Amino acid sequence: MDEGYEDYVRFLKENIDQIRSSLIMDRKDFNQAVPEWFSEIYHEYVPENQIFSSISASDSSEFVRELYNGKKIIMTRGYSVKGGKSYSQFFSDVFWVSRDHLRSLVTMLMENVEHISVCKMLKKESPDLVLLDGSLTGRLYHGYKRFESEKYADLADAYYDNLNEMLLSSSKTGSAIVYISKTSESRLLVSQFLKEHRASLPSSDIKKLEATVDHVIVKSLAVNPGYTEPIRVENSFIDDRSIWSFNILPSIQDLPVKVEVVTESELDQTFFNKLLDTLYWGYCGAKVHNIWISNADNMVKFRTDEVERIYMATFERIIGIPFYETRGERRARIRI
């Protein structure tokens, strides 16, 4: 082994307690008010398998390659899958964008084609549930940022128009929009707890909690599979509808899954119970937290052979210029 690996092992051993405690906290590491509060808002759950039968799932992917002139070729595609049918939206362009803004611009381009693919699907289908990978509140937090780019500097305008069109279309078909996220930096639960208990907590406990994400709370304190009570998310983008956020833990050996659902009124208990049953039924273990979204992900994902043998080869054939890799691209290829 090289010296770098030895340094890595040494680092892990020297920081094992700090790293472990940041991933899973013992109950004694919390102020005693936290476990008491958690026991009130977390409910153990055994599914009754009363599931929705009509479900669509959507996901998107991206491919970015830097050209030797500094511009990027960017491709994104979104798929919405319902039964044996898929509805897609594709984007491709070549343009300059600053490195500082590349990641966030590509993310919004990717999510934008996903929104459009859902709109296409909803013109033909009326599923009970429209499942999307990720977070609606995360998408709302993008804001109307202007990008340092020769094109799509004002992408946010079209992005939010298409997001709003997707929400309006779901209202017309009576379909519930449901976002599902396996990884999340949400602190909604933490914020709710601090809102109720901040005055009685020492500043050291407040500081520790403010640096803790919801998933750590759920993973650390849950004893059996269950869910947290839905919390209404305050937002100014969709005043006529509500966003409800909650966490489910289908397996105590796995991580929590954050769920956000959009409703036009209060969250109906019968609907909520059926949604829980559906999400539990669709959970297939640590690698497949939702069977419908996993299927859409497998269909939409750009793969190396596809990109190199089809898209990049077609670029060279039609444009008539060999594809020259930049040093950065060669390094990226090594990283991958």
Describe this structure in words.
There is one protein chain. The chain is an alpha+beta fold. The protein has one domain (29-302): archaeoglobus fulgidus dsm 4304 fold, CATH 3.30.2170. Helix content is 45%, strand content 21%. It has 13 helices and 10 strands. Strands 1, 2, 3, 4, 5, 6, 7, 8, 9 and 10 form a 10-stranded mixed sheet that branches. A hairpin with a 2-residue loop joins β3 and β4. α4 runs parallel beside α6 (155-173). It is globular. The relative contact order is 0.15. Mean pLDDT is 90; it is low at 330-336.
Short description, anyone?
With 336 residues, the protein is an alpha+beta fold. It is 45% helix and 21% strand.
SSE layout and pairing:
Layout: H1 3-14, H2 16-23, H3 33-41, E1 42-44, E2 55-66, E3 72-82, E4 85-95, H4 99-122, E5 129-133, H5 136-140, H6 155-173, E6 176-181, H7 188-197, H8 203-210, H9 214-221, E7 226-228, E8 231-233, E9 242-249, E10 257-263, H10 269-281, H11 291-300, H12 304-319, H13 327-335
Parallel strand pairs: 2-5, 5-6
Antiparallel strand pairs: 1-7, 2-3, 3-4, 6-10, 7-9, 8-9, 9-10
Helix pairs in contact: 4-6
- Described by the principal axes of the CA atoms, the overall outline is globular
Uncertain spans? 330-336
**Main sheet summary:** 10 strands, mixed
| Cα distance spanning the termini | 21 Å
Structural class: alpha+beta
CATH fold-level topology: archaeoglobus fulgidus dsm 4304 fold
Helix share of residues?
40-55%
Number of domains: 1
* Rg calc: 22 Å
User: Which architecture per CATH?
Assistant: 2-Layer Sandwich
**Overall pLDDT, averaged?**
90
